[in-house]
């Protein structure tokens, strides 16, 4: 594909829509007209129509009847859907390229919904629109799947649309009938592969985008209605089958790894022949050699063209291997994702697709003989462990573990275990409680163990297993304890912090993969990992970005909007709070590292001017009985009492709110708050309560300096204030509560930011790791790799034997050999210099 438009000519935010016409001018004109009626800025919309050498009066009709400003491009030859699209892109100046079939009509929000998704997440390279039939009754495209023999298919296509596919998700490919892609990504891949002519060019493009690390995202609110394959009627069914058979093989050849190609290409070619015979109604008695010897010895047989589509497709594929080889070399050189990582996006890869007895028998034989089911066995057994109670009332660690398990269970077999207690269940995975000794059976079952807290310290045997260990570092416990133990006896405090630090160091030395809650935390934990020797040539050379060692998985929020079923704050349960009052919600516990005291002083001052202001503390007692009562709870109650605010302007909810009831409290509030002192814990913390404010659409007032303080300020979600500044908090509260225009802007921005923090979005790095989990080559499991990083300090004044022992103990035979070879080179060099 030639890049006729230079990068300098690209217009930021502009969308270039490409429509290809081939002898379907009336459909095309309808489509073009609908594009001019989109809910999208006309200044940012460029419509390009390519007439693909129709050979009739299509070009004339389009010149005379197409809407104003449509750019008409006339191709000198019919280069298929692929060539027509690429020709259109040569004339496109948009930052984004949209493709829509000429026999399709877009919903008014088709482009705006897709572009919003692309602009909110730079990792998305392409949006796959939801496609329904012309009347919106049946499914055309709501998901993508790829069979092991290379044929892409659309699950549920042709079935009635039941409205259930409304959750955005990653897919392997879009449908070419309605897709939007970043122009830079499309051009970097040289667009659609024109050797395909038509069919599977969209599958191939999506596969290649995924291989280069870009995501293809199904966005169900971006909708198109499609007549389906109107242009193909001009070519005939044989041509369609031929292209499907050939293009499937070309796609496998280009995109599979060496190992995958060796496993799948030969049986895929064999199945192509079997499929052609089966669906061409061939006389399979000709396959019986013994019958042939005893009966008809004619050298001819009459077959239809469908029987020949497979053999001819293979022959055509062979002709293209020299050019495909060059493409394959480049794809394999630049790919960033493995076959295994993409297998979940293929959905049911063992789907035979065609219900014909002779074909199914061949499919079964090939799958078994080539062990294809085993090749696609991507489900791992994942154990998620938390030390917090799993119950109706849950704190952050248990909530996080529950949702990590829930997201992982979409692709894997999962068990969620608490080492404290359990009183909940889930339909998709096992949930339970175990003693530390009882946990051994679950660890034996698992391939991957995801854990948090002090598990390795309490169960040191886990570090010695060969299991893949994922340490969740979202809570920097040692920083938290610096503040939590303030005021304790000095030696006891030092001992507590030292033991917590060592517990974390044990995780850092042994873990195979780590997750934390923010980019700011990631920088902190990279320093910690460097301190225990994990940032070494082995990890760096494998992945210089270190993304395969440490990923950012923030706390998340539900994908579904909250629904209010009760009014626990404004419904009369708390005398002194009326339905018309302005409620400021403190959603969560009152801990020593927070600063509710300055907030109460600000509310006291604000209430003098606005007597309808109410501050509501959601929780005072942690649901985990092992967590001691914080002194800040007592100080907060005492201050509210002393100022005469308790029961009038400040209210305390005793205990802890059930997790599944929290939305009612959130939706009864008008504003969310989180204030804290400025110290090291707050710098690297991740305030989970702020996510609930995002979920409920609440403007918020937060202390600046931590991750969410930055987000609130930069994304205009409320006001970030300096620590312990009563006047600033008072002004911020007043603005968010009583400046309706400002609050409305905050709510609109919050809706956009909330999409970035849904659990499916934030857990993506963990899901991708678990698709291809592996032991880190430098982690410290006994019997597999060393227990500690190589010491770079040999014994001072030691003999050669002492040095050899040191290197052998710290790095093994390979390190000893490397050191001795280096020593030999150095000695030889020194002797040469003397001579």
Structural class: alpha/beta
- Give the DSSP E fraction (strand runs of 2 or more residues): 15-25%
**Total helical segments:** 31
Largest sheet: 10 strands, mixed
Task: Tell me the total number of β-strands.
Answer: 25
**How widely separated are the two ends?**
63 Å
Q: Rg, please?
A: 32 Å
Mean pLDDT: 88
> Which consecutive residue ranges, at least 5 long each, have pLDDT under 50?
781-799, 806-815, 824-835
Helix content: 40-55%
- What would you call the shape? globular
Structural overview:
With 835 residues, the chain is α/β, with parallel strands linked by helices. Helix content is 43%, strand content 15%. It is built from 31 helices and 25 strands. Strands 1, 2, 3, 4, 5, 6, 7, 10, 11 and 12 form a ten-stranded mixed sheet that branches. Strands 15-14-13-16-17-18-19 form a seven-stranded parallel sheet, with helices on both faces. A six-stranded parallel sheet has the order 22-21-20-23-24-25, sandwiched between helices. Helix 16 links the parallel strand 16 and strand 17 (468-472). The longest helix is centred in the last third of the chain and has 35 residues, at 800-834. It is globular. The model is unreliable at 781-799, 806-815 and 824-835 (pLDDT under 50).
List the helices and strands and how they pair.
Blueprint: E1 11-21, H1 25-35, E2 45-51, H2 58-65, E3 71-74, H3 80-90, E4 94-100, E5 104-106, H4 110-120, E6 124-133, E7 139-141, E8 145-146, E9 152-153, E10 169-171, E11 178-182, H5 183-188, H6 201-211, E12 215-226, H7 237-255, H8 258-279, H9 289-294, H10 305-334, H11 339-342, H12 357-369, H13 372-375, E13 381-386, H14 396-408, E14 413-418, E15 430-433, H15 439-445, E16 448-452, H16 455-458, E17 468-472, H17 477-484, H18 490-510, E18 513-516, H19 519-531, H20 537-542, E19 550-552, E20 582-586, H21 596-609, E21 613-617, H22 631-642, E22 650-652, H23 662-667, E23 671-674, H24 680-683, H25 688-696, E24 700-703, H26 707-714, E25 718-721, H27 726-738, H28 740-756, H29 759-762, H30 764-771, H31 800-834
Parallel strand pairs: 1-2, 1-4, 2-3, 6-12, 13-14, 13-16, 14-15, 16-17, 17-18, 18-19, 20-21, 20-23, 21-22, 23-24, 24-25
Antiparallel strand pairs: 4-11, 5-12, 6-7, 6-11, 8-9, 10-12
Helix pairs in contact: 7-8, 7-10, 8-10, 8-12, 17-18, 21-27
